[in-house]
């Protein structure tokens, strides 16, 4: 295990305190990226071209994506040729810096603008990615910040979805606006916005279906939700959060492209990065779209939804190799 990192100068920009970084390290310890980079540097501690070639294969294998991986490797190769690295440890340190630099621009937290009242968050994404769970976690977060939150059960396709949202609402003391199963999703969310307004709520978070009979049908429904909201508030929704399952791989790229085209996306949430997720898809998304990554899901409890922190994330992903674990 390489221990060099501990003796290096701190990065520019205030590093997060140790207590804030620990959960990231713990939750990202089993990721494929962590394991494979550690194995690579253990197997190949010598600084040479083939280390870089293998590193590129490792990054691609962990879903970092072909374009981002080759850009990262080429920038390291140029520095290797200029003899900037004394050993493999310094190369790893440079990789860490490049990975942080790739994510810094997208580490933009979601700020609830109090002038937009209620601030409307529309949650979108394909089925099973974690939309409803993330809404529950967000409701808790906003409520703890002192915001009055209302949830809209806009996934009317599955009856169980409304129940799932109500359970989260009850657990957190947050009201849920719902209609009968198979109601029109746009009208549920329209009613919810009206009632959030009349109650003077600060935040309205709307759930949506992840799957309808056809993918085109889903995109049409989302477009309709947007059209209907605009009738009440020309700027609503104020945030469209696309939820991506961190275990999905490169399919995340085509999902993001589709949702971006159909309704526009203002921020991303990448869930399920705990456990044995590969971990690299976050870099691929940052490189391809540059969309703000608002939150990441590092587990199933409310505290496990964390505001995205580029440095804590990269250090968590490389913890095994950096020797910080
Ligand atoms: N380990 C882990 N599990 C998560 C995370 N986020 C969500 N899940 C789990 O993912 C599963 C699906 O979550 P849902 O919130 O129901 O997903 P959804 O996008 O609403 O799904 P549909 O309503 O079918 O479109 C649940 O079992 C969640 O507990 C996370 O960050 N980590
Ligand atoms: Mg759901």
The largest pleated sheet is described as: 8 strands, mixed
**Gyration radius, rounded:** 21 Å
Write down the CATH class of the largest domain: Alpha Beta
Strand content: 5-15%
- Rounded mean pLDDT score: 92
Bound molecules: guanosine-5'-triphosphate, magnesium ion
H/E element string? HHHHHEHEHEHEHEHEHEEHH
Q: Total strand count, please?
A: 8
Helix tally equals 13
Strand order within the widest sheet?
Answer: 3-2-4-1-5-6-7-8
CATH topology term of the largest domain: Rossmann fold
Number of domains: 2
Oligomer: single chain
* CATH superfamily grouping of the largest domain: P-loop containing nucleotide triphosphate hydrolases
| Helicity level | 40-55%
**Poorly predicted runs:** 1-10
- Please name the CATH architecture of the largest domain: 3-Layer(aba) Sandwich
Helix/strand-derived category reads alpha/beta
Overall morphology: elongated
What does this entry look like structurally?
- It contains 13 helices and 8 strands.
- It has helices spanning 18-28, 32-43, 49-61, 66-81, 88-103, 131-144, 159-172, 185-198, 215-232, 251-263, 281-289, 310-317, 319-322, and strands spanning 119-124, 149-152, 176-177, 203-206, 239-245, 267-271, 293-297, 305-307.
- An 8-stranded mixed sheet has the order 3-2-4-1-5-6-7-8, with helices on both faces.
- Residues 1-10 have low confidence and may be disordered.
- Helix 8 (185-198) packs parallel to helix 9.
- The chain is α/β, with parallel strands linked by helices.
- It is elongated.
- Helix 7 (159-172) links the parallel strand 2 and strand 3.
- The chain has 2 domains: 18-107 and 316-322, Up-down Bundle (Four Helix Bundle (Hemerythrin (Met), subunit A)); 119-308, P-loop containing nucleotide triphosphate hydrolases (Rossmann fold, 3-Layer(aba) Sandwich), CATH 3.40.50.300.
- The site of magnesium ion (MG) has 6 residues, from helix 6.
